[in-house]
Amino acid sequence: MMKALRLESVGRVHTVEVPPPSATADGKEVLLTVTHCALCRTDAKMWRHGHRDLELPRIPGHEVCGILEGEPGHYAVWPGVACGVCPYCSSHMENLCPSMKIIGFHRDGGLAEQMLVPRECLLPLPPRLKPHLAVLAEPLACCLNAVQQAKTRKGDRVLIFGAGPVGLMMSLAVRALSAQPTMVETSSTRWQKIKSFCERTGLKVEPQTPMEAFDVAINAATSLDTFTHGIHGIKPGGCFCLFSGLDAKGLVPSSLLNEIHYRQLNITGAYGCTRKNMREALEIMASHPGPLEELVEGFVGLEGVKEMFPAILRGEVMKIIVPLSS
Amino acid sequence: MMKALRLESVGRVHTVEVPPPSATADGKEVLLTVTHCALCRTDAKMWRHGHRDLELPRIPGHEVCGILEGEPGHYAVWPGVACGVCPYCSSHMENLCPSMKIIGFHRDGGLAEQMLVPRECLLPLPPRLKPHLAVLAEPLACCLNAVQQAKTRKGDRVLIFGAGPVGLMMSLAVRALSAQPTMVETSSTRWQKIKSFCERTGLKVEPQTPMEAFDVAINAATSLDTFTHGIHGIKPGGCFCLFSGLDAKGLVPSSLLNEIHYRQLNITGAYGCTRKNMREALEIMASHPGPLEELVEGFVGLEGVKEMFPAILRGEVMKIIVPLSS
């Protein structure tokens, strides 16, 4: 038997003892012993509100690192199962594959001692990268996808709404393209939390949207204001990337959309990441592991996960990591 | 003295006799004798509602063809005056120049017997292109800008909302990129008007948005539905181009914008055109003049323009051309 966290229905999650899954005879799906799984805001959102891609009941967890019995080294997990043959899969956009099954959404994820995972989802960790930090490869890969979708170029000034763990990782992704990030963060509590990270990395945070016009803007926060301020905050021909889904029930006036028309703006979405993004993320993390450690707020056992969800939804904590099999 | 149509204030337009403008001594601004000027929906919109870029009082008209005294041949007019040195002007995006002055909006246009125009705005007509058709170069150039902003590729299936004169020209622009246009037109009156054009060109028109997913969608109509149906009508990773400004006072739910996030859609704006687009449009028109003649509903004198505006706003007429000096 193995311990796992299972979301039974919206609002109802608990730890269970269940039989571990079995590897497939053809070797395509292997049994990963999970060493660490990080909690994502989306996990908390699933618990509170559900999610478009969630199929219940489900073991969540899509920011995963683990080992294979009898093999050396750790692996990070690209949390997708794509068909491999459609036009999206054939052109390195496998995150858009129409038959995509997301690990932790459509199939069981990493908040368990063991998980079944397609062999081709496993990416070996580069030397020097600690396994507990490797769980950050998936969110960083999603940030890399966002800055790439936004066609960020060297030297571009990039506005990022939100300076939580995702906003900070987005800043690192922007820097990886030799562009210049500026974060906007309105919460003074969060300012305190990220002070040392920003000092150490030299990243800029502003308490409100600056007056100058940016080349690119990206939201790492769910408020509808991020869309409105983003549209107004970019230059003619600039790009706003909808990285975070917006709070439901908001309404946008057509006059705001007409700004897209008059100033030839680009709005682009970003959802998930590709294997290539994961590999890029692992390389960046191995080269600059220093500040990543500061993104980690703390560790919690499977039993403590549910209690963390409200604070995660309120944006009060940085990354929380669940250590599993050691 | 010369005859001109002057928009004095929103809702108030009349013909006037005014002194013609004078060419500048340095030869940069020349006096064009206008032979033809077509009416655009935007001219009618300016009269009814005003426009973001309109400065009053104003002689409207931005789809212009004319001659220079003492020189052979006709010229089409790129209706913009850009600074020529900013980053936009330096990278063939002069339509986004921050100091852009649009002819017929910020400065006097072609609904007059003569107009002052920068020499560098004049584009000689290719042989074989009739001057009264050359007025269509500007709207076709705007369509070419739209399909290019939408990154339309060879073979792409492109959905176009609206089969008025602009929708039809958009279809020709899509075909110029070897992509496949499908128009959606809900008005049965318009179906009658475009029947012969569509038969002659083999263009497809549907009475409602087809169920299949398109690579690109473009609105050539102002209804907010074009945005909603456009978002739903494109594939993951596809592009919707806001070519037409949307009716004011509409509201879009954030759940619709979240489709951009979840399916990594691209929304792009298109506004005006570049000199390069104008040159491309003139070449296309010279190669395929046949169907263009069918876009012309009729001719009207300056005194008849005001009476046409309501029908243009209701989308009841194809292109109306004002012949001026002959």
Number of strands of chain A: 18
Parts with pLDDT < 50 across at least 5 consecutive residues of chain A: none
From the 3D structure, determine the CATH topology of the largest domain in chain A. Quinone Oxidoreductase, Chain A, domain 1
Give me the oligomer status.
homodimer
**Could you give the order of the helices and strands of chain A?**
EEEHEEEHEEEHHEHEHEEHEEHEHEHE
Strand portion of chain A: 25-35%
Provide the number of structural domains of chain A.
2
Content-based structural category of chain A: alpha/beta
CATH class of the largest domain in chain A: Alpha Beta
Please outline what is shown here:
The first copy, chain A, is of the alpha/beta class.
What would your notes on this structure say?
The structure is a homodimer of 326-residue chains. With 326 residues, chain A is an alpha/beta fold. The first copy, chain A, folds into two domains: 2-136 and 295-323, Alpha-Beta Complex (Quinone Oxidoreductase, Chain A, domain 1); 142-269, Rossmann fold (3-Layer(aba) Sandwich). The first copy, chain A, is built from ten helices and 18 strands. In chain A, strands 3, 4, 5, 8, 9, 17 and 18 form a seven-stranded mixed sheet that branches. A six-stranded parallel sheet of chain A has the order 12-11-10-13-14-16. In chain A, helix 5 (165-176) links the parallel strand 10 and strand 11. The radius of gyration of chain A is 19 Å and the shape is globular. Chain A starts with a strand and ends with a strand. Chain A binds chain B through residues 52, 88, 93, 95-96, 98, 149, 224, 227, 236-237, 242-255, 257-271, and chain B through 52, 88, 93, 95-96, 98, 149, 224, 227, 236-237, 242-255, 257-271. Strand 16 of chain A pairs antiparallel with strand 16 of chain B, so a sheet runs across the interface.
